Amino acid sequence: MPAGATRLEAFISSRGIKPAHLARESRYSRQHLVRIRMGRVHPLSSGVARIVAACRRLSGEDIGASDLFDLGE
């Protein structure tokens, strides 16, 4: 993972997922999704679920929230 990149940013970058597609699939505005991707804001649990579901659809992978977010492990 590049220095300073969030797990979400690293995931979408490594899979070639376009941020605009993720925004549409997760029902977030592109501007708000940028803030989440950069770690400036943290989504509520319902938002995490929406982003995980969108990443599953776009990547075709069975991933979990901990693959995309630091859940304080």
Overview of this protein structure:
It is a single chain. The chain is globular, with a radius of gyration of 11 Å. α2 (19-26) packs across α4 (45-59). The chain is 60% helix and 0% strand. It has one domain: 434 Repressor (Amino-terminal Domain) (Orthogonal Bundle). The longest helix is centred in the C-terminal third of the chain and has 15 residues, at 45-59. With 73 residues, it is mainly alpha-helical.
Order of helices and strands: HHHHH
Using the coordinates shown, work out and report the CATH topology. 434 Repressor (Amino-terminal Domain)
Question: How far from one another are the termini?
Answer: 17 Å
Name of the CATH architecture: Orthogonal Bundle
Rg on CA atoms, Å:
11 Å
The total of beta strands comes to: 0
Poorly predicted runs are: none
How many domains? Answer: 1
Q: Helical residue percent?
A: 55-70%
Mean pLDDT: 93
Hey, roughly how much beta strand do the residues contain?
under 5%
Form type:
globular
Structural class: mainly alpha
How many strands, which pairing sense, and closed or not: the largest β-sheet? Answer: none
Supply the number of helical segments: 5
